[in-house]
Amino acid sequence: MMSPVKIEWHVNLRQTFFCIARALDSIGIDDINHGHRVGYMAYACAKAMEWSEEECQLVFSLGLIHDCGVAQKRDFYNLLENMQPDNVRQHCVRGYELLSQCPPLALFADTILYHHTPWEELKHIDIPDRDKRFAALIFLADRVDYLKELYPRDEFSNVTQEARNEVCLEIGRLSGTLFERDLVRQMQSLLSKEFIWFSMEYHHIEALSQSLPSTPFFEQKLEVGDVVAIAMLMANIVDAKSQFTFYHSQKVAEICHSLARQLGLNSEMQKALYLTGLVHDIGKLHTPEDILHKPGKLNESEYLCIQRHSTDSRYTLQMMFGQSAVCEWAANHHERLDGSGYPRGLQGAEIDLPSRIIAVADVFQALTQARPYRGRMTLEEVMQIMSHEVSCGRLDSKVLDVLVKNEKEYYELSIQESSPGWVSAP
What we know:
Blueprint: H1 13-25, H2 34-48, H3 53-65, H4 73-79, H5 89-100, H6 109-113, H7 119-122, H8 129-148, H9 161-173, H10 181-191, H11 194-198, H12 202-210, H13 216-219, H14 224-239, H15 248-262, H16 267-279, H17 289-292, H18 300-321, H19 325-331, H20 353-368, H21 379-391, H22 397-405, H23 407-415
GO molecular function: cyclic-nucleotide phosphodiesterase activity
Organism: Vibrio diazotrophicus
Protein name: HD-GYP domain-containing protein (C-di-GMP phosphodiesterase class II)
């Protein structure tokens, strides 16, 4: 039996929004920090409109995550094609669905659903006035960020005065139809000031967020289920990046939970390992899609690129969860008992039981899923490889023994597309 580990069920909500924004930057656009700028412009405009501090901070957060329904780079490229791109509904609906299923963030769902809806249509939709205002402002800030990128920068990489003027003229031309009039007037006033343009650097925006006063939303005490729901949201964003890894994080979570229970770990540890499984691959959002989808063997530099994801996972999770053990376990899922793993080359007793559990769950689930270079393996093929990994001293034999006793059930759990969650995992 392992020594008890105190699990801190706490999430830094402010940092979570920035983590999502950075994750979305990694999906495939060249112009990063789009969410940061949209959030900042929306916040500045809301402050100028004298909205409440709570509303200003909520719309800031909305700007950071407004594209959470975007799954792959082609979706982003579509948004950059013109002022009113086609096929925007899909990512709005997906974002709405993701947030609707995440109770702590469900209040943002309607805004995300309508954040590309023209004002002349939005004003007639039956949703709360606040959601309507939020959606209108996010749409305006989003398109301002799109417009400014249509013009070349000066020799010092600043947005030129000509570009600023053209942006203001264009949103003015669309005032009352695409955009809400009062918001346009206030945004034009803001964009006439140098301060706004110079403040659109990501480090200035993140520094601003650290100086904001407390509001009820960010001071709320989250329950265990809320923390898991946020982790599930992140898992859905990660898994959607590739058709070959869809459901991977959720399935690893379910397998971890079940293995922990059958190994005699207490319910707190079972839930913590479920959470770890959900977020263990969050660093893969920084991995290029071309590498994830490569149909053949990775070359040396590509493999090195893949290896980054466990370290990226560690630092991303520390922003969200602080120094929780979950961050360590997630970052260790590619460590091996013989020291051959990565990124730190841990071995033997340096790898604790939770890290060993997630390593077994991750390998097992990956083998049961199709990949660009192979189809789904049979149970016999999977167990042959798992046994070889144990005999070579890379994976934990006690953890695998538990899996072997119920191998058919674990295989079925791993390949089914429905997700029972930790409450009902076998």
